[in-house]
Amino acid sequence: MSAGTGIPSLVALGAINGGIAVAAGAFGAHGLRERLSQHSLEIYETAVRYHMFHALAMILCAVVASSGARTAGWLFQAGIVVFSGSLYALALSEVKWLGAITPIGGLAFLAGWAALAWSAIRDALH
Question: CATH code at 43?
């Protein structure tokens, strides 16, 4: 794996995101349980869940190592920042307009899964 392929950076970013998701989950369970409303905790937990799923998906994309999979990995990174990031901010601040940008991150996740599927289909046909 050469550094130019983007594979090591996807593995590293996936691992870093996995660690951040674990830390965020622990912080939510131990540091926020008494400070946030039940609704805000549910929002926070959704952010953590999607953060971890897509951190693992980024590592999967690096293992697959096709160009479509690399694209998917970077879309997952964008989704983590926008989807999970906006939900973390919404849960902690209760600034409602943050919820309006969350779907943009969801679209990045969906585009990532579509790119990964297309890459796998394309590779299977060749």
Answer: 1.20.120
